[in-house]
From TrEMBL, chain A:
Keyword list, A-Z: Cytoplasm, Kinase, Magnesium, Metal-binding, Phosphotransferase system, Sugar transport, Transferase, Transport
Protein name (record): Phosphocarrier protein HPr
All copies of domain PTS EIIA type-4, residue ranges: 1-136
Record-annotated HPr domain positions: 142-232
Upper classification of the organism: Bacteria, Bacillati, Actinomycetota, Actinomycetes, Micromonosporales
Chain intervals for the UniProt region annotation (Disordered): 257-295
Keyword Cell division in record: no
Functional note: Component of the dihydroxyacetone kinase complex, which is responsible for the phosphoenolpyruvate (PEP)-dependent phosphorylation of dihydroxyacetone. DhaM serves as the phosphoryl donor. Is phosphorylated by phosphoenolpyruvate in an EI- and HPr-dependent reaction, and a phosphorelay system on histidine residues finally leads to phosphoryl transfer to DhaL and dihydroxyacetone. General (non sugar-specific) component of the phosphoenolpyruvate-dependent sugar phosphotransferase system (sugar PTS). This major carbohydrate active-transport system catalyzes the phosphorylation of incoming sugar substrates concomitantly with their translocation across the cell membrane. The phosphoryl group from phosphoenolpyruvate (PEP) is transferred to the phosphoryl carrier protein HPr by enzyme I. Phospho-HPr then transfers it to the PTS EIIA domain.
Localization terms from the record: Cytoplasm
Automatic annotation (TrEMBL), chain B:
NCBIfam families assigned to the protein according to its UniProt record, in alphabetical order: dha_L_ycgS (TIGR02365)
Protein name: Dihydroxyacetone kinase subunit L
Keyword NADP assigned: no
Superkingdom of source: Bacteria
Residues making up the signal peptide according to the UniProt record: none
Keyword Transferase among record annotations: yes
SMART domains, A to Z: Dak2 (SM01120)
Keywords: Kinase, Transferase
GO MF annotations in UniProt: glycerone kinase activity
InterPro entries listed in its UniProt record: DhaK_L_YcgS, DhaL_dom, DhaL_dom_sf, Dihydroxyacetone_Kinase
A GO CC term assigned to this protein in UniProt: cytosol
Length: 813, 211
C-alpha cells in the first residue's frame, strides 16, 4: 500500500489532520514528521527521512506538507535518502487537510502512488465548486480587474511610467487594454505599448495577470490606479517657490482676444519675455549610410549609446526634484518593445543608427495615430530620446540647436526644456501644454518665462515676428502695437527693478514700514546651501537639517565629523547664527546602524525628539558635537517634533550632560519646533525650558488637518484658519521669540499675516530670502493686524488667500 | 596567517558563527519581526547552540565531516526555513570538501560557491528577492575574484565580508519576493533582510576565524 507522510510545523496539527483522515480511511498508513518536539514549531529534514523510511513498504510514499520550511525540509530530505527510496517518493502540492483526507481514502483503496497524489491535489475541488458559483476557470491563477483613469490628461507620460514601473516590479505577466476603445491587450511592462492605449480621463482599462501572484499583482495595480498613478496634484502651491507670486488662473481662456491684441493663455513660469519668434526645426541628426559591421558590433553600439544617454540623464537630474520627469525617458531606454525591434533590425543586417532610428520612428508613428493631442504629443518623447541616443551613437556633441528670442511650439518636452539656454531663450509660448507639465516645471527652475495653452493659432506665427508674453498673468501678444509692447516693457522693468531692489537690499535687515524688524533666515541642508544662504543675504540659518549627515551610511557620524561639518556651515555663513536641528527621522527613514522596529504609521510613531530619546547614545554624541561648536560660534539647538514638556526636560537634561563633556558654551540657545498641535496649544508650558520656538508649518498643517501634503485628494494649505489660530496662540503665549521655518514662510502673501500673528523670524530656501525681505519691508502692522484677526475667523484657506490680495496688507510699492 | 585551513580552523569558524548569532539574536529577531514571523534569531540560535554542543562532544577529524555534522544538526534543530537553507549550504560544502585534510583559498571559494548553489537550489531565490542570497552571492563572487587575483586568504575574506555587508545593506530597499516577507509586498521595503543579516555574520565569522 502507498504510504503517506505528513510534514507540518506543528505536531498537534499533524496529529489532528491524521485523526480526521483516519475517520475516512482507517487502513491508511500515515507517518508524521512535525514540530521539533511536542510544542516547538518547526520542521526537521532528518525526521522526514525517518518518516519516509517508515512509511515505505515498496509501493511508494506520497508526502503532504503545510508551508514554507515544510516544503524546503521535505525537498532536503529527498537529498538525504538513497536513490532507490527517492524514486518511490512523491512530494504532493495538495493542501494539507483536504489533500490528506483524499490521499488516505485513495491509498487505502490500494491505488498507486500517482493516483493517490492526483486525488490529493484534486481534494480542493469539492470546496471550490461549493464556494464559487461559476465553474473553475481553466486558467486558474489568472486574475482580472477594471480600473477607470482619473488623471486629467489620461495615462500620459508620468502616470504611464508609474504603471510600467509597477508592472515590471510585480513581474506577473500583467497586461492591459483600453476597454472603452476596445484596444487589444498589450504588456503593461512596455511604456511604448501602454501609451498606445490612448487612455484618456474616464476611460476604463482592463488589467489582467497570470501565475501565482496574479491576484495580488492586479490588486496592486488597482490600488495604484486609485491613487491616480501617484501623479502629483496641480502644483499651484509651488508657484511661489518658483518665483511667481500671482495664482494662476486655472480656467483655460484660450485665445481670448481683447481690443489691444493682447490674448491670454495660462501663465506657467513667471517673468516677462519680449523678442523675435523662432520655431525649432525637428531635424533629427543625419545618419550616415554605413553598412553593418556585424550583429554583435552594432548591438554593442546600441547598448553603449543607451548607457551613455542614461548616464547623461542621471547626471543632470540626479537628486533634483525634477528627476522623476525623466522616468518616462529612462523607461523608453529600457523598453523591450523598442529595443526588441532594434535588435531585430540589426539581426536583419541594418547598422545600429538606422536600426534605432527606424524602430523609434515606427513607435513614434503609433503615437501619431492617437486621437488625443496630448497623448499624440508623447511621440515627441520617443523622438527626443531617439535623437539623444543617435547623437550619442554618432558622437555628435551638444543638444538640439537653440534659437534666440521667444520659442513658439506646440508643446515642450522635458528634454527640450532642459537644454534651453536662458541667456538666449527669452520666453516660451506654447499652443498646448499646462502649467503643471514637466516642461513648465523645468522652465520655472531655469527662470525662463513661459505661457502655455495659447491655442493652435500661435503656431502660424511668422519667424522673427515680435512676441511679448507675461508668464505670471498668461497674457501674450504677437506683433503688438507699440503701446502694448511698451506696457510689457514697463512690466519687465518693474519686475526687474523689484528683483534688483530685493537683491541689492538683501544684505540689509528686513524692517516693516512701522519699524518692526523681522529676521529672514535660510533653511540649510548642506554646506553648499549655507554658502547660498550667505550669498542671498540671509540673517542667519534658521533651520539646519542635520539629517544629511546621518542618512545613507553604514555607521553613525562620529562626534569629530559632526563638529567639522557644523563648523563648516557656520563658517560658510560668516559668523551668523546657525540653528542646528537635532536628527529628525522616523520609521520612514531607516538608519542602518540604528534599526527601528516597523511601525504601522511612522508619521505617528517614534520620530523626531522621540526617536532621539529612544537612542540616547546617538543623541548624546550629536549634542556633544553641537555644544563643542557652540563654544566657537553663535549656535542654537532645536528639538524637532516635540509634543510634551517631559520630552523637552529629558532632552535638556541630556544637553546639560553634553555641555558638561564639551565645556560651557556662552551663546548656545535652546529651542523646540512646534509641529504638533499639542505643543502649539500648550506653548506657554514650554517657556521655562527654552529660548525660542520655531513653527514647522508643513508638519503642523498636516497634523492639524489630518491631511498629507502629497495626497491629491486633500487640501493641506498652511493658510487654513485652524493652523493660523495655532500660530496665533503660539505668538501670544510662548513668551519667547517665534520663528516659522515651513514653506508658508516663503509665501509672500502669507508674510504680512505671519508677522501680524507675532512671528519675528522667517526661515526660507536661500534663493527666496531677498523677496521675502522685500515683502517684510512692505508690511504695515496697523493694517496687517486686523487682517490677521479676520483671517483667523474665516471659513477656509481659500477665503484667507482671497483676503490676502496685494494692497490689503502692503503699504504699497 | 595561514593560507590553508584545517578542521581546527573550520571548527573555530563554526564556533565564531555561533557566538555572533548568540550576540545578534535579538537583532535578528527584531529584523524578522518587521517582515517575517520573528523566529529567525531564536531558531538559528537554537540550531547553532546544538551544533557547538555536538562538535564539542566529538570533533570530527576532517573538514568535510565537520561541515556535514554541522549541516545535519542544523536541519533537525532550527525548525524554520533557515534550517533546510543553512543545512543544505553546509551539506553542499561538505560534499566539495570531501576527504581533504586541509582547504586552501581556492578550495574555500569552491566550498562557499557550493553553499550558495545549495541555497539557490533549496530556496529558488534570485538576486533582488531580498533573501540571504543577496548578501552571500556578492561575498562568494568577491572571494573567487580575490583568490583568483592571488590575494592572501585573510584579505580575500575581508573583501568578501565587505561585499556581504554591501549586499546586506542593499536588501533594505528591496521588496521581498520569497518567504513570509513576500506577503508584505511593498511594505517589506525599508527593512533589512534577516537572512542576509545572518549570512553576513557567517562571512564575518570566516573573516575572523579563517584568516
Amino acid at each position: 500500500m502507498v504510504g503517506l507522510v505528513v510534514v507540518s510545523h506543528s505536531r498537534a496539527l499533524a496529529r489532528a489532520a491524521v485523526t480526521l483522515a483516519a475517520e475516512m480511511a482507517a487502513g491508511a498508513r500515515i507517518e508524521i514528521a512535525a514540530g521539533l518536539d511536542e510544542t516547538t514549531l518547526g520542521t526537521d529534514a532528518t525526521a522526514i527521512v525517518d518518516a519516509l523510511v517508515a512509511a515505505d513498504d515498496g509501493d511508494g510514499v506520497v508526502v503532504l506538507m503545510d508551508l514554507g520550511s515544510a516544503v524546503l525540509s521535505a525537498e532536503l530530505a529527498l537529498e538525504l535518502i538513497d536513490d532507490d527510496l527517492r524514486s518511490r517518493v512523491l512530494l504532493c502540492p495538495a493542501p494539507l487537510v483536504e489533500g490528506l483526507v483524499a490521499a488516505a481514502v485513495t491509498a487505502a483503496s490500494g491505488a498507486g502512488r500517482d493516483e493517490v497524489a492526483r486525488e490529493a491535489t484534486e481534494g480542493l475541488l469539492g470546496k471550490l465548486s461549493q464556494l464559487s458559483p461559476a465553474p473553475v476557470p481553466e486558467d486558474s491563477g489568472a486574475a482580472m480587474a477594471t480600473v477607470t483613469v482619473e488623471n486629467p490628461h489620461g495615462l500620459h507620460a508620468r502616470p504611464a511610467a508609474r504603471l510600467v514601473t509597477e508592472a515590471r516590479r510585480l513581474d506577473a505577466g500583467l497586461e492591459v487594454r483600453n476597454r472603452t476603445t476596445g484596444s487589444p491587450w498589450v504588456p503593461a511592462t512596455s511604456l511604448s505599448r501602454v501609451a498606445t492605449l490612448g487612455a484618456l480621463r474616464g476611460h476604463e482599462i482592463d488589467v489582467r495577470a497570470s501565475g501565482p501572484g496574479a491576484r495580488a499583482a492586479v490588486d496592486e495595480i488597482v490600488a495604484v490606479a486609485a491613487r491616480r498613478f501617484d501623479e502629483t496634484p496641480p502644483e499651484l502651491d509651488k508657484i511661489s517657490e518658483w518665483g511667481g507670486s500671482v495664482p494662476v488662473d486655472l480656467d483655460l481662456i484660450e485665445g481670448n482676444t481683447t481690443d489691444t491684441g493682447v490674448r491670454r493663455g495660462q501663465g506657467a513660469s513667471a517673468g516677462i519675455g519680449i523678442g523675435p519668434a523662432w520655431r525649432r526645426s525637428n531635424t533629427p541628426p543625419p545618419v550616415p549610410d554605413v553598412p553593418s559591421r556585424g550583429t554583435e558590433v552594432e548591438w554593442r553600439r546600441v547598448e553603449d549609446a543607451v548607457a551613455a544617454v542614461r548616464l547623461e540623464i542621471d547626471k543632470i537630474w540626479a537628486g533634483s526634484q525634477e528627476a522623476g520627469i525623466f522616468d518616462a525617458h529612462l523607461l523608453l531606454l529600457d523598453d523591450a518593445e523598442l529595443l526588441g525591434e532594434v535588435r531585430q533590425r540589426i539581426e536583419d543586417g541594418q547598422a545600429a543608427p538606422q536600426a534605432f532610428q527606424g524602430a523609434a520612428a515606427r513607435i513614434a508613428a503609433e503615437f501619431d495615430t492617437l486621437e488625443d493631442p496630448y497623448l499624440r504629443g508623447r511621440g515627441d518623447d520617443v523622438h527626443a530620446v531617439s535623437d539623444q541616443v543617435l547623437r550619442a551613437m554618432l558622437g555628435i556633441s551638444g543638444a538640439a540647436a537653440t534659437g534666440d528670442g521667444i520659442l513658439v511650439a506646440a508643446d515642450l518636452t522635458p528634454a527640450e526644456a532642459a537644454t534651453l539656454d536662458p541667456e538666449r531663450v527669452l520666453g516660451v509660448l506654447l499652443a498646448f501644454g499646462s502649467p503643471t507639465s514637466h516642461g513648465a516645471i523645468l522652465a520655472r527652475t531655469r527662470g525662463i518665462p513661459m505661457v502655455v495653452g495659447a491655442g493652435p493659432a500661435v503656431l502660424s506665427v511668422p519667424h522673427g515676428a515680435t512676441v511679448v508674453l507675461d508668464g505670471t498673468t498668461g497674457e501674450f501678444a504677437i506683433a503688438p502695437p507699440e503701446s502694448v509692447a511698451a506696457a510689457f516693457r514697463d512690466r519687465a522693468a518693474e519686475r526687474s527693478t523689484r528683483t534688483n531692489r530685493a537683491a541689492t537690499r538683501a544684505g540689509q535687515p528686513a524692517v516693516t514700514a512701522d519699524g518692526v524688524t523681522v529676521l529672514v533666515a535660510a533653511n540649510v541642508g548642506s554646506v553648499a546651501d549655507a554658502r547660498a544662504a550667505a550669498a542671498h543675504g540671509a540673517d542667519l540659518a534658521g533651520l539646519v537639517r542635520t539629517e544629511f549627515l546621518f542618512l545613507d551610511r553604514d555607521a553613525a557620524p562620529s562626534i569629530d565629523e559632526q563638529i567639522a561639518v557644523y563648523r563648516e556651515i557656520g563658517e560658510a555663513l560668516g559668523g551668523r547664527r546657525i540653528t542646528l536641528r537635532t536628527l529628525d527621522v522616523g520609521g520612514d527613514k531607516p538608519l542602518r546602524y540604528a534599526p527601528a522596529p516597523a511601525e504601522r504609521n511612522p508619521f505617528l510613531g517614534v520620530r523626531g525628539i522621540r526617536r532621539s530619546l529612544a537612542y540616547p547614545g546617538l543623541f548624546a554624541d550629536q549634542l556633544v558635537a553641537i555644544a563643542r561648536v557652540a563654544r566657537d560660534m553663535p549656535v542654537s539647538v532645536m528639538f524637532p517634533m516635540v509634543s510634551t514638556v517631559a520630552e523637552v526636560i529629558a532632552a535638556r537634561r541630556m544637553l546639560d550632560e553634553a555641555i558638561g563633556r564639551a565645556g560651557h558654551a556662552e551663546g548656545l540657545r535652546v529651542g523646540i519646533m512646534i509641529e504638533v498641535p499639542a505643543a502649539a496649544l500648550r506653548s506657554a508650558a514650554f517657556t521655562p525650558y527654552i529660548d525660542f520656538v520655531s513653527v514647522g508649518t508643513n508638519d503642523l498643517t498636516q497634523y492639524t488637518l489630518a491631511a498629507e501634503r502629497g495626497n491629491a485628494a486633500l487640501s493641506a494649505d498652511g493658510l487654513d484658519p485652524a493652523v493660523l489660530r495655532l500660530i496665533q496662540l503660539v505668538g501670544t503665549q510662548a513668551g519667547v521669540p517665534v520663528a516659522v521655518c515651513g514653506e508658508l514662510a516663503a509665501d509672500e502673501a502669507a508674510v504680512p499675516l505671519l508677522t501680524a500673528l507675532g512671528v519675528r523670524e522667517l526661515s526660507v530656501a536661500p534663493p527666496a530670502v531677498p523677496l521675502v525681505k522685500e515683502a517684510v519691508r512692505g508690511i504695515r502692522l496697523e493694517l496687517a493686524g486686523p487682517l490677521a484677526e479676520q483671517a483667523c475667523g474665516l471659513a477656509d484657506a481659500n477665503a484667507v488667500r482671497a483676503l490676502l490680495k496685494p494692497g490689503n496688507v502692503h503699504s504699497g510699492r | 596567517m595561514a593560507d590553508t585551513v584545517g578542521t581546527e580552523a573550520l571548527h573555530a569558524w563554526i564556533r565564531e558563527f555561533a557566538r555572533l548569532i548568540a550576540e545578534h539574536k535579538d537583532l535578528l529577531t527584531e529584523l524578522d519581526s518587521a517582515i517575517g514571523d520573528a523566529d529567525h534569531g531564536v531558531n538559528l540560535h537554537r540550531g547553532m547552540s546544538a551544533v557547538v554542543e555536538v562538535l564539542a562532544k566529538e570533533t570530527p577529524g576532517r573538514p568535510g565531516e565537520l561541515l556535514k555534522r554541522t549541516g545535519m544538526t542544523l536541519v533537525s534543530t532550527v525548525g524554520g526555513a533557515s534550517g533546510p537553507l543553512y543545512g543544505t549550504a553546509f551539506l553542499r560544502m561538505s560534499a566539495i570538501a570531501g576527504d581533504a585534510e586541509t582547504l586552501d583559498g581556492a578550495d574555500l571559494a569552491r566550498v562557499l560557491r557550493a553553499a550558495l548553489d545549495g541555497v539557490v537550489a533549496r530556496g529558488k531565490a534570485q538576486a533582488g528577492d531580498k533573501t540571504m542570497y543577496d548578501a552571500l552571492a556578492p561575498a562568494v563572487e568577491s572571494l573567487e575574484e580575490s583568490i583568483a587575483a592571488g590575494q592572501p586568504l585573510g584579505e580575500a575574506l575581508d573583501g568578501a565580508l565587505r561585499a556581504a555587508e554591501q549586499g546586506r545593506a542593499a536588501t533594505i530597499a528591496m521588496v521581498a519576493r520569497k518567504g513570509r516577507a513576500s506577503y508584505l509586498g511593498e511594505r517589506s521595503a525599508g527593512h533589512q533582510d534577516p537572512g542576509a543579516t545572518s549570512v553576513t555574520l557567517l562571512v564575518a565569522a570566516a573573516a575572523a576565524a579563517l584568516a
